[in-house]
Amino acid sequence: MSHVIRGRFAPTPSGRMHLGNLFSALMAWLSVRAQDGVMLLRIEDLDRARCRSEYTEQLIRDLLLFGLDFDEGGLSKPDRMGETCIQSERSAYYNEVIQTLSKKAHVYPCFCTRAQLHDVNAPHLSDHTPIYPGTCRHLSSEEIELRQTARTPSLRIEVPDKTIVFDDLCQGHTEESLASSCGDFVLRRADGIVSYQLAVVSDDARMGVSEVVRGRDLLSSAARQIFLYELLDETPPRFAHIPLLLAPDGRRLSKRDQSLSLESLLIRFSPEEIIGYLAAFSGLIQKPEPMKATELIPLFSFDRIKKDDIVLSPSFYHA
Ligand code: GLU
């Protein structure tokens, strides 16, 4: 087996990148380049209503502007399966993976409505996500047939009462109980679109990804993903969940934060100045100074990257 690290950046092209997206791309790229690995790009455009191919093209232009290049998966550089990984084109493959999973675990149709799932009396996680109580887990085949005439179900996978333990390269020792952190989760929505968890594991496994660097907001997904890897007899990647960049009032950045959109930032700063700011925010350098991405490669190590979210100063945010 090859020991070359294969890392990836997997953006959702629902608008032009903001600073937080660029930060994730930079950290994933630096880790791969510091280990002489292979960097992949995957376009996560399952949400057809929000994603557009113009955004994908812009995204690749922006990444290259900041010196972040790809060895596989960029639009002119197919991945090792000879294709560019665009998730909206892979539904047949995802459905095969669901078939495989249904031979290994209990995958079942769920007819619950949004209103039932979001019932205020049901247990919720701190981020308000409802924990699925298992309502449809044991429906009889007659009940399933009857309900199917009135409503297309989603598909869920039953989770065991098991705690997943892993060492995150950035956040350290992490434990999460599948049953109490999310319950049985969705593999395919009622509208036929597969879930993020299913698509990401199917693709990372098929692309041979061995290192996943992404924002801390996805830390709670890692346990579900490791569970799917185990069912598929695949080795999970090493995970590094990096801090999020936050607005001065503590909010997470979004594509709506106009002052940090790449359009506005590139009016105020050169690409090298922006890379220098990101390097200083992350803890890689002491003070912001213009840097090329390649100049940061020898400095990179997860030990130097901050663990806690990074609150941007009002002067940077509004400048
Ligand atoms: N597509 C996700 C995003 O843009 C990232 C998924 C991942 O890195 O696992 O937030």
Automatic annotation (TrEMBL):
Task: Give an example GO biological process.
Answer: tRNA modification
Keywords, A to Z, come to: Aminoacyl-tRNA synthetase, ATP-binding, Ligase, Metal-binding, Nucleotide-binding, Protein biosynthesis, Zinc
Where, in this chain's numbering, is L-glutamate bound? Answer: 8-12, 44, 196, 214
Q: What is its EC number?
A: 6.1.1.-
What PROSITE patterns does the record tag this protein with? Answer: AA_TRNA_LIGASE_I
Domain (Glutamyl/glutaminyl-tRNA synthetase class Ib catalytic) spans 5-263
Q: What does this protein do?
A: Catalyzes the tRNA-independent activation of glutamate in presence of ATP and the subsequent transfer of glutamate onto a tRNA(Asp). Glutamate is transferred on the 2-amino-5-(4,5-dihydroxy-2-cyclopenten-1-yl) moiety of the queuosine in the wobble position of the QUC anticodon.
Check the record and name the NCBIfam families matching this protein.
Answer: PRK05710.1-3, PRK05710.1-4, queuosine_YadB
Protein family (similarity comment): Belongs to the class-I aminoacyl-tRNA synthetase family. GluQ subfamily.
Protein name from the UniProt record = Glutamyl-Q tRNA(Asp) synthetase
Which organism is this entry from?
Answer: Merdimmobilis hominis
Q: What is the lineage of its organism?
A: Bacteria, Bacillati, Bacillota, Clostridia, Eubacteriales
